[in-house]
Amino acid sequence: MNRLVEAGLNGLVKQGFPNRQNRSARTWRGGADGWSLASELVERWLIEGARTDSLLEELPVGLAPPDRARAQALFLGVVRWWSRLDAALAPLMRRPPRKRVQAVLLVAAFELLEGGEAALVVHHAVARAKTLTSAQEAGFVNAVARQLAATLRVEPSDVATRWAHPAWLVARWDRQFGTQVTRQLLEWNQQPAPVHARWRSTDPAPAWLRPAKWPGFFEIGTAPWDEVRRLAAAGALYLQDPSTRLCVELLAPQPGETILDACAAPGGKSLLIADAMRAGRLVAFDQPAARLDRLKENLAHVPAGVQTALMPGDLRKAGPKYFAAHNLPDRYDAVLLDAPCSNTGVMRHRVDVKWRLQESDFAKHAAQQGALLRAASRLVRPGGRLVYSTCSLDAEENERVVRRFLDGAGDWKLERHMLAYPWTDGHDGAGVFLLRH
């Protein structure tokens, strides 16, 4: 039987997937229709700056699937296109309204941008505003929304506003990739991301899973989500982008090995490592503030022949005494370091990342990544393997981090690396480097 070793994890609440059940109760003003819920999500995003995935987790548990799907699509669409929608709204208002009214207008603006019939969109937005705001504010929504369709038909002249990305980020990509590739990346990021799953069961995959071009991966499409949740909870499938396979392929886990996943949460790559090795020992390590609840849940689904340990801690401070205290080895056959990064390769999925990211973050990430890489290298046995990976497209977080590490570590060499780019590979971006001790 598989054994899960836990350290410092008392009190964790088991959570379902993909919709968590342990969120606090929340009152939704406009009822349970998807449009009103999307407007309230946008309002909270504008006020709190909370992450989109956290906000979506707070949708009512018993919400009808069509309303859940609509709320999510509208909310993520507004966040994805926020700067373009805001630029269209700004000239139509003498001063910004309160966030609740702004949210109603943004949802209407997104529907218009997507080609919604102007009269129907305006009528519906005003009707919802009467419920969500005051009568006077509903009149304001009516006056502004009637002008929005014409405003949005005029395509912005600058690329950053046209494709709703920060201007500094577009300029950075222009310097690194060139104008043509940058346009491809911007267009990619603005398309709703398909949902992929990795089929883990020995039973045949259900017919509603459409095979993707990457072995073992399928596209969910219009699958029955209740069945998706059931199979995910049973461990038969795992929702996962195909780009995540790259670092595990380079790691090449073998049966009987002892492997460390050094930044493991939420556990998708840990599960992929365990599935590849089938037998051996896997230690999943991450910061206590990471999503250790999800990591714990995912490790419960590893093959029976894989012994697992879940360890919270700061990798940069975890020396031999730390591992010895938990009866774990301080040297491993292989270590995967999927380091925290800018997430520039996954902006199609994480639509709010571009609005949180600052240009100075790249240097901060690179410094942290270098420290983590040095710490991870100390945990590899002589002759062992170390894979460094990110979901960043930026050379400052990929090649330059590895180059600096190799310059200061004479007994390491780079054996192989892969750089995945959405515009050529058809999935999220990633940088993956196989280092040998």
Can you describe what's shown?
This protein has 437 residues and is α/β, with parallel strands linked by helices. It folds into four domains: 4-12 and 241-436, Vaccinia Virus protein VP39 (Rossmann fold); 34-154, NusB-like (N-utilizing Substance Protein B Homolog, Chain A, Orthogonal Bundle), CATH 1.10.940.10; 160-189, no CATH class; 196-237, no CATH class. Helix content is 44%, strand content 15%. The chain has 19 helices and twelve strands. The chain has helices at residues 34-48, 52-56, 65-80, 82-89, 99-113, 118-132, 135-153, 159-162, 167-177, 179-189, 225-234, 245-251, 268-277, 292-299, 320-325, 353-356, 361-377, 399-407, 422-425, and strands at residues 4-6, 196-199, 210-211, 217-219, 237-239, 257-261, 280-286, 306-312, 332-338, 380-390, 413-420, 430-436. The protein has an eight-stranded mixed beta sheet, with helices on both faces. A hairpin with a 5-residue loop joins β3 (210-211) and β4 (217-219). α6 runs antiparallel to α7. It is globular, with a radius of gyration of 23 Å. The two termini are 33 Å apart. The model is unreliable at 1-24 (pLDDT under 50).
Keywords:
alpha/beta; Rossmann fold; N-utilizing Substance Protein B Homolog, Chain A; 4 domains; 19 helices; 12 strands; globular; disordered N terminus
Concise synopsis of the structure shown:
By secondary structure, the chain is α/β, with parallel strands linked by helices. The chain has helices at residues 34-48, 52-56, 65-80, 82-89, 99-113, 118-132, 135-153, 159-162, 167-177, 179-189, 225-234, 245-251, 268-277, 292-299, 320-325, 353-356, 361-377, 399-407, 422-425; strands at residues 4-6, 196-199, 210-211, 217-219, 237-239, 257-261, 280-286, 306-312, 332-338, 380-390, 413-420, 430-436.
